[in-house]
Structure formats: structure tokens, C-alpha cells
Design goal:
Layout (H helix, E strand, L loop, with lengths): L1 H33 L2 H27 L13 H31 L8 H28 L2 H28 L5 H28 L7 H10 L6 E10 L2 E11 L4 H19 L2 E10 L6 H11 L3 E9 L4 E9 L5 H19 L4 E8 L8 E2 L2 H15 L5 E11 L2 E9 L6 H18 L3 E9 L5
Parallel strand pairs: 2-3, 5-6, 9-10
Antiparallel strand pairs: 1-2, 4-5, 7-8, 8-9
Helix pairs in contact: 1-2, 1-4, 2-3, 2-5, 2-6, 3-6, 4-5, 5-6, 7-8, 11-12
Length: 460
């Protein structure tokens, strides 16, 4: 898409350059021939437009270059700088026209020699400039190019300037000798007014003024995303056609890193949809929500300390809380070191919930990563599958399937799937499966670990 936008801007600028050169030359020759200051002024105005178009043609080729090591935000600001340069040239031209027109009025210069030719040239010029102004304005809107927008305003001023020259020549033809000089002054005023309009927008961009309504649209797009609690700060600025958006957003502190990363990706897509070409810097601030449970808050405390805990139970006794936790540490760690870790965890929990909270921590060895192994022979798998089916016979657990056995240096690892009634509670299923696992380890002492997966019946 950026490549297509660049081609569009370059093509429109090239066409404008050819048109500017042709019309400026024709108006200047005719203006000199008939002695019309207004027409010569308009030709000079078109000549400045030609210079501006050449600058635009060069600038749009540079502004679309991607960011590099020296220009982290791209090269878009060069369009604003070129627009300021063109505005300066326009004001110099406007000042020169006013000075010359005043001299004509003061000295009583002769009226221009009139014929149909200047009027035909001016009508053609109006048609050409009107077409170019519309084409450039559309291209500027599509590509958000300040350089093309400046070019469009130049040609719009050419249209109004040509109309002013026609009026001035008509007044001269009716015997009002001052008509031509007055038309020249009118051209200068038009140049100044349009330059002021363009200059204001360009300076605002250089000063990083937020585009009208952009911040509100970006905030609405981000706030609508699931997982975004609130927006603490959002800033928008334009660099060329691109919006650069910096946002600090609040997200639940219980979310894992990958969930927060997904929110960032969604925010980039949402802002791009709302603003068009956008580059989003998303900073996530974890915050506690009112809906957090005590268990979730304890899990956050442990995670922030880099600790592995499970089997968290909480009892509210009215006046105080009692908390029980299973804390996993390296099995080779000395007890004194493990106790210090547990003590710090308990301290952090009391700091969160109050000093009168009772905390009991059960320290257990962290389950080591299982070593690599090989699949057991079919006969061994069949024997273990048969034993599992026998242990489950007549009980709530049934349909033992997908049995896998792996030989490792630490012992055999057994995985199996089974089924239970859909209405059966998780606690009851866990109790029944535990009995089967214990029976299997008693029958096969070489089994190091058993991993089961309970499923509802197929029809569920």
C-alpha cells in the first residue's frame, strides 16, 4: 500500500509539473505582448507553482522512504519543510506584485492592449488549473501528503487569480485604467490568504499538534478492546501521512504475557482501522481489578516473585483469613534456603491482606523435567493397559484408552485417557483416578509417573 501511494503522489506531481510549465509560459508571453501587469503577475505566480511542483516531485520521492537508523520516524517531515519553503516564495512574489502594482497606479501606466487571445488563454488556464487542483486535492487526501496539499492550494489560487485577471482586463477595456493594477493586487492578496492557510497547517504539524479528532478516535478504538481496563495517557502526532500514537493502557495484572501481547496486536489493528496509516507504541500497565478473587491476588504475588505455587486454599473466618499454599522449590535446595523463600512469600501475602492473615506454606520439591525416553515395547503397553482396565472395572471410571508408555532413565512414564459421567464432579473424578494411579504404581514398581486425562462420554 505505501508503494502504491508513493507512485500515485509521484505521478500526480509529474503531471502538474508539465501543466505548470506550459501555462506559465503562455501567460507570460501573452502578458508581455499586451502589456498586462495582472497577467504577468499571474504568470509569475504560475512559475512559482512550477518551482513548487518540482520541489513536490522531489520531496514525495524522499518522504516515502522507510525509517532508518538516523530517521526513526521516517522522512515525512520533509514535506512540511518543503511546504514552508514554497509559502516563503509565495509571499516574496506577493510582495513584489504589490510593489509593482502600486508603481503602476502612481505613475499612471497605460492600459493593456486587449484582444480575444488573453481571455481565451485565461479561460483555458482556469479549466486546466481547476482540474489539477481537484486531482491534487484528492491525491493529498488519499496519501495525507502536505506537499501535494500545498500544490493543490497553489492551483486553486491560480483559478481565482485568473478570474481576478479577467475582471481587471475587463475593467481596463471599459476605460478604467486602474483595473489591471487592481487585478494584480487581487492576485497578491489571494496568494497571501492561501499561503496563510497552508502555513498554519504546516506549522501545526511541525509543532506536533494532534490532528483534529485523531486522539478521540484512537481512544475509542482501544477502549473497545476486551482486556483494556482504561487508558492512562494517549498522544498522537503526524509525521508526513502517518499517525504516530503513544498509549499507556491499563490491563488486568492477572493476565499472562501472551494475552497482553495479543491485546497489543489488536490495538495496532484497531488504531490503523480508525486512523488509516498508524504506528502504535503500546505500553501496558498491570492494575488490580475490583473483581479479583483472593486466590488470584495470591497467584499474582507468587508470580511476581518468580515462584511456582499450587493448591491454594483460602478460608474466611470473619475476622481473619487463613491461607494454605503448596510451594514448589528445587528438590536439591537446602531446607534453610527453602524456608527463607517461603517466609518471604508469606510476608508478601500479609503485606497485601493484613498482618493478621494466617499463612501456612507446604514446601515440596519442584517436579523435574522428565528425561528423554523411548516408547515401550507393545507387550509392555498391553500389560499396563490391561491392568488399568482391571483397576477401573466396576467403578465410576471406565473406557481406558490411548495408553502410552515411555521408558526413561528415571523409570516408566504412563499416559492414559479415561471416561466418567458428565455430571460427576471434578473432585470425585480426581479421587477415583488417583486410586487407579496408585494401584498401577503398586503393581508396576518401575512406573515413575502416571498422567491421566478424564473425558466425558462420547455423546457429550
Amino acid at each position: 500500500m505505501p508503494h502504491l501511494a508513493s507512485n500515485s503522489k509521484t505521478r500526480v506531481a509529474a503531471v502538474s509539473m508539465i501543466a505548470s510549465a506550459s501555462m506559465a509560459a503562455i501567460k507570460f508571453v501573452v502578458g508581455v505582448a499586451i502589456g498586462s501587469l495582472a497577467l504577468i503577475s499571474e504568470a509569475l505566480h504560475s512559475s512559482v507553482d512550477l518551482v513548487a511542483t518540482i520541489i513536490t516531485w522531489i520531496v514525495v520521492r524522499i518522504s516515502d522512504r522507510p525509517a532508518d537508523d538516523e530517521h526513526h520516524y521516517g522522512h515525512g517531515k520533509i514535506e512540511s519543510l518543503s511546504a514552508l519553503g514554497v509559502i516563503a516564495m509565495l509571499y516574496v512574489l506577493a510582495g513584489g506584485i504589490v510593489v509593482q502594482a502600486y508603481a503602476h497606479l502612481r505613475e499612471g501606466a497605460a492600459a493593456p492592449t486587449l484582444s480575444a487571445i488573453p481571455f481565451v488563454v485565461l479561460v483555458v488556464d482556469i479549466a486546466v488549473n481547476f482540474w489539477r487542483a481537484r486531482a491534487l486535492h484528492r491525491a493529498a487526501l488519499d496519501t495525507r501528503s502536505q506537499a501535494l496539499e500545498a500544490d493543490a492550494l497553489h492551483f486553486a489560487s491560480d483559478v481565482l487569480g485568473s478570474i481576478a485577471v479577467i475582471i481587471g482586463l475587463a475593467l481596463s477595456g471599459l476605460g478604467y485604467a486602474w483595473g489591471d493594477a487592481a487585478a494584480a493586487i487581487g492576485v497578491a492578496v489571494l496568494i497571501s490568504v492561501l499561503g496563510l492557510r497552508l502555513g498554519r497547517a504546516t506549522v501545526e504539524t511541525l509543532l506536533d499538534r494532534a490532528p483534529e479528532g485523531a486522539a478521540e478516535r484512537a481512544k475509542a478504538a482501544i477502549r473497545a478492546l476486551p482486556g483494556v481496563v482504561d487508558i492512562e495517557r494517549l498522544r498522537v502526532r503526524m509525521v508526513g501521512p502517518r499517525h504516530f500514537v503513544d498509549v499507556i493502557a491499563e490491563v488486568p495484572r492477572t493476565y499472562p504475557i501472551d494475552r497482553i501481547d495479543a491485546i497489543k496486536q489488536q490495538a495496532q489493528a484497531a488504531v490503523s482501522a480508525a486512523l488509516g496509516d498508524a504506528d502504535l507504541t503500546f505500553t501496558a500497565i498491570p492494575v488490580a481489578r475490583d473483581s479479583e478473587s483472593i486466590r488470584e491476588r495470591i497467584m499474582v504475588i507468587a508470580r511476581n516473585s518468580g515462584l511456582a505455587i499450587h493448591h491454594v486454599t483460602v478460608h474466611d473466618l470473619g475476622e481473619k483469613l487463613t491461607v494454605s499454599i503448596d510451594l514448589e522449590v528445587d528438590g536439591e535446595m537446602a531446607l534453610v534456603d527453602a524456608h527463607a523463600i517461603a517466609h518471604r512469600l508469606e510476608h508478601n501475602i500479609r503485606h497485601e491482606f493484613g498482618a493478621n492473615v494466617e499463612v501456612d506454606t507446604h514446601i515440596e520439591p519442584l517436579e523435574p523435567e522428565l528425561p528423554l525416553g523411548t516408547d515401550a515395547v507393545p507387550a509392555r503397553i498391553h500389560a499396563i493397559r490391561t491392568a488399568l482396565s482391571g483397576f477401573a472395572a466396576g467403578g465410576a471410571i471406565h473406557d481406558i484408552h490411548n495408553v502410552r508408555v515411555r521408558d526413561t532413565d528415571a523409570g516408566e512414564i504412563v499416559n492414559f485417557h479415561c471416561r466418567a459421567a458428565s455430571s460427576m464432579s471434578v473432585a470425585k473424578v480426581h479421587e477415583q483416578v488417583d486410586e487407579i494411579e496408585r494401584a498401577l504404581r503398586r503393581a508396576f514398581p518401575s512406573v515413575k509417573r502416571v498422567i491421566s486425562h478424564a473425558e466425558p462420554p462420547r455423546e457429550s
